[in-house]
Amino acid sequence: MASSLKRVLQNINFTAPLLQYANSSEVKKVLIISAMLTATLLLGSCDKENERDEIPYVYVNFVVYPNTLDFIPVGDYAYFSGGYKGIIIYRQLSDDFKVYERACPHDPLVENARVFVEESGIIAIDTVCGSRFLLTDGSPVEGPATIGLKQYRTRYDGFSLQVMN
């Protein structure tokens, strides 16, 4: 064990005085304690800015008919109930749909924090925090949000669009 410890210490370029005491149990204890303290500091050094509330999970599984009953023209959107704070369905192409949760990922638990589609029809904004998102992929383009809108899965058969988690 002492020879392997010496090799490890040599590989990480510790100074020579420390190497001559590598067999000492006190030095081993100090090294182990130092390693544990370093790991604790590194793992526990996450600042509050990186902490964010997650959007609560709500089961989603429904069908819409974007060509008839629930008509959504290409390049347009529609709001639907469901999810945590509602759902936006954006029809990018005739057979390509993007479906997003309306809860803002920056502040999902704030009561009125909900995204609305702007007049442009391609940007959604949370009027509480000011975050703006592209509806083509859900990515944030402005504001404090650092992650995109939560996206739901879809299955489209040319007639009906199934939306699900």
UniProtKB/TrEMBL annotation:
Keyword Hydrolase on entry: no
GO molecular function, a single term: 2 iron, 2 sulfur cluster binding
UniProt keyword annotations, A-Z: 2Fe-2S, Iron, Iron-sulfur, Metal-binding
Record keyword Lipid biosynthesis present: no
CDD domains: Rieske
Rieske domain residues: 64-163
Source organism, top-level taxon: Bacteria
Name assigned to this protein: Ferredoxin subunit of nitrite reductase
Lineage: Bacteria, Pseudomonadati, Bacteroidota, Bacteroidia, Bacteroidales
